[in-house]
Structures are given as C-alpha cells and as structure tokens.
Amino acid sequence: MKKYINIFLLTVFMGYLSGCDDLEYFPIDQLSDQQVSESPELLSNITIGTYSRLREMRYVRNRQAAQEFPGDDAVWVKNSGDNRMLTYSYQHIVNSSVSTQFWQEAYYGIFSANKVIEAIDDNADEENLQLKGENIFLRAFMHFDLVRMFGRPYSQNPETNLGVMIRDNTDVSALPPRSTVKETYAFIENDLLKAADLMSISKPSIFASKEVAWGMLARLYLYMEQNEKAIEYADKVINSGKYSLLETSQFGSYFTLLPENNPETIFAIKLLETENMGKGSIGSLYHGQGGWGEMFASKTYRDLIYQNPNDERVKFIDPDYIYDEEGNKIPDPTEDVGFLLQKRDGLSQYFINKYTMEGGVQMLSSPIVMRLAEMYLIKAEAYAKTSGKETEAIEMVNIIRERAGLSGEQLFDTNDLKGYETVLDVVLDERRLELAWEGHRAMDVFRNNRPLDRSSVQPFGWSGPLLVQPTSNSIVHLIPETELALNPNLIQNPTE
C-alpha cells in the first residue's frame, strides 16, 4: 500500500541534518500538503487526476470485463490467453490481471480522492464544496465498482458476506479488513448522499454533479431492494430537467455521440481521441473494423431483440454481411437478418457497436455509466416489486419501448404480458434489451436470485458452467494474492 505515495503530489520531508538550520527541504518537483490544501487550482488538478484513473485501461477495460463478460448477451468465439477469458468463463484465479489491476487502480483513485476530501473543510466556499463533493462521489463510485466485483449481491446475506475494505482516509499504514457487504453499501450510500448535498454547480456528464449522485443512489437502492427510495431518487434525476431521452430517430446513433453533448447521458467515463487504444480498447473484442472482432451478440439476445425487427435497438448489432459481385446482400433465411453473414469458427458475426465510432473514430468510446433510460427502468423494477404498482411498472417499460420505435401490439398491458408470467419478468427482459453490453446483465440476474443460462455463449474449447446459480462462489472474483500478502487482515472469497 505504501507505493500509493509515489503516485500523487505528496509531501516529502527531508530529515534534520546534523549541523544544518531548521528549514524543511523539498525536492524541486514536490509540494507540501499545506501548499496543496491551500491551492484550489492544485486541488482541482488532483481531482482531474482522479477522474483520469477511471479511464486508465487497467480500470475501465477490466471494469467492463468484470461487469459484462459474465453475462449472456455476448459470445466469445475463441479461447484466449487474456485473463478476461477467465472472467468470462467463471474460472477465477488469485493472480488474475483483471482483478489485480482493477483492485490497484481503484484504490489508487480512492487515495487520490481522499487527499482532496481531507484538504477541504465542510464550511468552504461553493467552488471548493463542489470539488469536495465530486471527490466524495468518485470515492463512492470506485467502492461501488469494487464491491460489485468482489462482494456478493446485497440480496444475499449482506450482514455476513464480505464486501471490500473501506478506505476513507490517506493513512497508508492502516491495514483495514474487508467490511461486510451491508457496511460497504452503507458507506457508499452515505458518501453519495453527502456528495449530492455538497455539489451545487451544473456540470457536463463527464463530471460528477448532484444529479449524477442521485442516479447512483437510485441504482444503489434498487440493489439494496429499498424500492421506495429507488423510485424517489430516479424521480429526482428524471424531474431535474437536465436530461431527456434521445429521440427515436437519433437513438441508433447514441454511442457515436460525444457523451458531454448527449442529452440522455448522466455520467460517462470520458476517453479522448488521443487515448484511443485501438485493438487494446474496450470495443476491440466487439467489432472487427479496427478491432479483433471475437465477441458477437449471443443467440438468446438476438432471439429477444429480433422479435421486433423495427426495434431501433437492433441498430446496436452490426451484422457482417457477405455481398455478391454487384454489391448486394445474399439472401439466407437461416439468419436472423435474412442475409448471409461472415462466420468465424462456425459462428455468424453479429458485431456489437456500442463501443466504437464515437465521433466517427474507430474503437473510440467513452463508456456510458448511467443514462436516463436506466432511471425509468429502475422505477419499473421497483414498481414491479411493490404490491399494487404493476400498472406503473408497465408504464415505465412502455416509455422505453415507445422510444425504441415500438407501438400498438408491441407494447405491454397488465392484462396482456405476451407470454411472460410476471411483470418483473417483463421488466428484466426490457432491461436486457435496453442496457445490453453496458455492464448490467449478470448483476441483474444474480441480485434477483435467478440462475443464468450460458449454454448459448460457450465457445469452442471451453468447459465453463452452462448454468450459473446465484449462490455459486464463482459469481465473485477472488481477492488478488498480492493484496493478501500486503494486508494480512484481508480474507479470501471462498472457492468451493
């Protein structure tokens, strides 16, 4: 943990030397804690550095792998030596680069946030309170990501299951144990509430703001099954007037828009064009134009989305068509799209384009953390779990479906669930349709204590589980062995 000191602008004290005066000496490129704490500009610079932690590939790419790859919306067509394959196949190891890099980057970022939080008094001016609030939000956000990766869902014995170690100060000598899932969520909740209270300056969606904290609280409360609060905070975001659902005619181009210019985006991890990693980017596995193109939309997802071919969300799938000599698509009635597709290892290439072509640049993408559509779906799920609120749940679902271009018989009614057994089943499938590949699917299944059928995503040469139970030990990552060695108070997740 002491290596954190080398990352940030920290005080380096020179010891008193024999025969010297009483001055303290600093290397010319170092600043004292007091200098930093008294300079709004320096505190702002540290904050920008904390935001930068989120877009480090060690953080953002592994975040995507941990949250999305365990789902059933995409199939990885080949075996890979990349440790993300171990996340995809639920075969976790203690020295996985995914978990190790993510753990380290998250706690680096948390340490940086704590430096600013400690430097700004609660009675500071509006500008500094905004800065403090942003850092409290970032601290909460990274703890939330960590507990999703290393802790079990809140719906499963949160009082006894272990979450992650809480870091609320810059004492690098402290070796805290893992808090319980309940304690970790309570810490995140308190941070988000305080962040929302402190922030009063409107900011674009690539920075934290009061509304961003509200949105994260809505998601947190949904996970905690505090449905009234989930609805309350989702409504705060919706009624803020700051965001609007992208028009149906624009929706298919959602992820090509710059997030700060997209009226629906609540919070995104901004990557600049100069930070585009090409084949090392998040989108590389999902698309073959500029990337490796090894991960395709799964058959079960396609079966769901292509029930309504006019659904605008089909545009987030980019089939790799084969053309004849005249440049025409070749008919193939066996394909979901009705035309012949390129194949890889026998699988049709249904590329996914949510992580490429931002601003027209191949493989450039600023991952969307939250958008307004999720707030409606949070309300839908919370209503579905509240007695007597089934009609309200369906109303929220239909708002999302209408925006996707669906109408008439394509919408739901409490008297016509179109084959679904419950309203909750309707909501969860709508979440799957709307939020595919954005890091929600596996968590949505397991926090609702449902099994995940992965029989359609098994690639060649892989013998991972075909049905993952919500009680399985494999739904959480193992604590990195390097961190266990550094902190003997940490307890490993069970493996059997």
From TrEMBL:
Q: Which residues form the RagB/SusD domain?
A: 358-494
Q: Superkingdom, according to UniProt? A: Bacteria
Indicate whether Flavoprotein appears among the record's keywords: no
- Please give the chief subcellular localization of this protein: membrane
For this protein, the record's InterPro entries field holds:
SusD-like_N (IPR033985), SusD_RagB_dom (IPR012944), TPR-like_helical_dom_sf (IPR011990)
**Which keywords describe this protein according to UniProt?**
Cell outer membrane, Membrane, Signal
Choose one Gene Ontology CC annotation of this protein and give it.
Answer: cell outer membrane
Q: Which residues form the SusD-like N-terminal domain?
A: 35-222
Protein's cellular compartments:
Cell outer membrane
The chain's coiled-coil residues are none
Family that this chain belongs to:
Belongs to the SusD family.
> Which protein is depicted?
RagB/SusD domain-containing protein
Source organism: Cyclobacterium marinum (strain ATCC 25205 / DSM 745 / LMG 13164 / NCIMB 1802)
